[in-house]
Design a protein that fits this description.
Layout lengths: L9 E9 L3 E7 L6 E6 L5 H17 L9 H18 L6 H16 L5 H5 L3 E6 L7 E4 L3 E5 L6 H14 L10 E5 L5 E5 L10 E5 L8 H7 L4 H12 L4 E5 L5 H9 L8 E5 L11 E5 L13 H9 L5 E4 L6 H10 L3 E7 L3 H9 L7 H4 L4 E10 L2 E16 L4 E11 L4 E4 L4 H10 L3 H21 L4 H13 L1 H12 L1
Parallel strand pairs: 3-6, 10-14, 10-15, 11-12, 11-13, 13-14
Antiparallel strand pairs: 1-2, 2-3, 4-5, 4-9, 5-6, 7-8, 8-9, 15-16, 16-17, 17-18
Helix pairs in contact: 2-3, 6-14, 7-14, 9-10, 13-14, 14-16, 15-16
Length: about 500
């Protein structure tokens, strides 16, 4: 394996993606300080490459099953068996070391995502972007943000074929007649692609927003510093009591991740309907109906919009309605649902609470201010720099106290903010949401604060115990809603 890269820059880090075959190296140019991402794969000689192509051709010619119809593990076994059989039948001289390299490339190309397969397997990568023929592929790396890779498509036909294959994997069609793809891969990753030079003069393009096989949870967000235990406990209590929440932020600020984490606080027996353009939410609740929009081919009547799905959802009498992103006429209907007692959570593109209000009352949402005044909480997410590393933080937690009919203003109450100087969340002021919940439940404000403290103790206990996995947290929440006092006492004892 070629590890000589001094001329390309100095190593910042290197780590395995699929040992012992593929590694990632993060390099920094000593002069320009540009950071790049290099995929390191097994080295093949020109003779090895000829052999690889010959084996690929024979394999395809003799293939008599549809590999896409069988499980990935079984497909790997079948590919290896067939290649070994071909080598034996054609009396090829291939030592075990070369065979392992060849098997890696054949499995990568037939069962994986060809040259970008290492990027799809790197858990540090969130987005993969190809801007056309001859342009380096860029990735969004969790630690280094947007960086250039050593991969690119130099051949227009190869790139066209790959985006068509992406569409096929998504169960969609891509052609000159239908040159735009917006869909999801089987693993949930979002794909947007264009075909040939019909849309982009640089040729075919694609962007893949990767779906985490192991989703981040609220415990992960606390550990990462995205949110504090105090804020998480507050959200838990608020969501349990059907408070409505809008999570705002710019693109890739972690809005959907936070939304998915906070939805886990919903009681296990509650009925949830989620509505998204591309399915991203992943909840442990059994009484959950996930709905997704549909774009028809050529016939406008076959489109199913967020607005239509939301109207349909309301007829199903859900306890909670979750909307992946609010941005159109569905906003008015969502706020009507909020006004009739449904628990509502959603995301929106805006970078301050004031801009959230402005967007909601502007075209095409057109939500009247008195209705906006019924919203409980606005959270603002952002990407920030902590030293030289990229991170995500909840910048502010703001409550809406209500609508002042005299001044016609939305009254805001800031209760928490992120202080960049110490990288901590600072609590500010008294919570109006907490007061409203206490009044509805007939408890004192002190009792409500005690409930927050219980949840904070349990969250810190889960953090200490390393209980961060999706199912673990789901089990803890089920136990809490079954017998909160018993779980609280256990958390107290085990936290000592």
């Amino acid at each position: 394996m070629d590890m000589k890269m001094e001329s390309e820059g100095q190593f910042k880090s290197t780590y395995p993606i699929e040992e012992p075959y593929v590694y990632a190296a993060i390099l920094e140019d000593p002069v320009t300080k540009e950071v790049t991402y290099k995929v390191i794969e097994p080295t093949l000689t020109p003779e090895d490459k000829i052999l690889l192509e010959k084996l690929k051709k024979i394999f395809l010619d003799e293939l008599d099953i549809d590999i896409s119809e069988i499980s990935k593990d079984k497909a790997h076994v079948i590919v290896e068996e067939r290649i070994r059989k071909i080598i034996k039948n054609y009396k090829m001289r291939v030592d075990e070391g070369l065979l392992n390299k060849i098997l890696y490339y054949i499995k990568r190309d037939f069962l994986g995502f060809e040259k970008i397969d290492p990027l799809m397997k790197d858990h540090f990568i969130e987005d993969i972007s190809c801007d056309g023929v001859g342009v380096p592929i860029y990735v969004w790396h969790r630690e280094y943000e947007s960086i250039k890779t050593n991969l690119k498509y130099d051949d227009e036909e190869e790139l066209n074929r790959f985006v068509v294959r992406l569409a096929y994997l998504c169960g969609k069609h891509l052609s000159v007649a239908d040159p735009i793809l917006d869909a999801s891969l089987p693993d949930g990753s979002r794909v947007n692609a264009t075909f040939s030079s019909e849309i982009s003069r640089k040729g075919a393009t694609f962007t893949i927003r990767r779906f985490r096989a192991d989703p981040l949870t609220i415990v992960d967000l606390i550990q990462l510093g995205t949110i504090s235990p105090d804020v998480a406990a507050y959200l838990w209590f608020a969501i349990e009591n059907k408070s409505s929440i809008l999570i705002a932020g710019e693109v890739a600020s972690g809005k959907t991740t936070l939304l998915n984490c906070t939805c886990m606080f919903i009681r296990p027996d509650m009925k949830i309907v989620s509505i998204e353009e591309t399915p991203e939410l992943n909840l442990p609740h059994t009484n959950w109906i996930p709905l997704a929009t549909r774009t028809g081919f050529g016939r406008k009547a076959s489109d199913i919009t967020l607005f239509e799905l939301l109207k349909n959802a309301l007829r199903q009498r859900p306890d909670y309605i979750i909307v992946g992103e609010v941005r159109g006429e569905e906003a008015y209907t969502l706020f009507q649902a909020l006004a009739t007692g449904h628990g509502v959570q959603a995301t929106i593109h805006a970078d301050t609470p004031e801009k959230v209000v402005s967007r909601l009352e502007s075209e095409p949402m057109n939500v009247p201010r008195p209705l906006i005044g019924l919203l409980d909480i606005i959270m603002v997410q952002s990407r920030v720099k902590i030293g030289d590393k990229s991170a995500r933080r909840t910048l502010t937690v703001t409550e809406i106290k209500g609508y002042d009919s005299q001044s016609k203003e939305i009254l805001l109450n800031h209760i928490a903010r992120w202080d960049p100087s110490v990288d901590r969340h600072i609590l500010e002021g008294e919570s109006e949401v907490l007061k409203r919940i206490a009044e509805r439940r007939g408890m004192s404000l002190d009792d409500a604060k005690s409930e927050l403290n219980k949840r904070k103790v349990i969250l810190n206990w889960m953090l200490k115990k390393g209980m961060r996995r999706y199912l673990e947290i789901g089990n803890v929440l089920r136990e809490y809603y079954s017998d909160s006092e018993r779980l609280f006492k256990r958390a107290l004892v085990e936290s000592l």
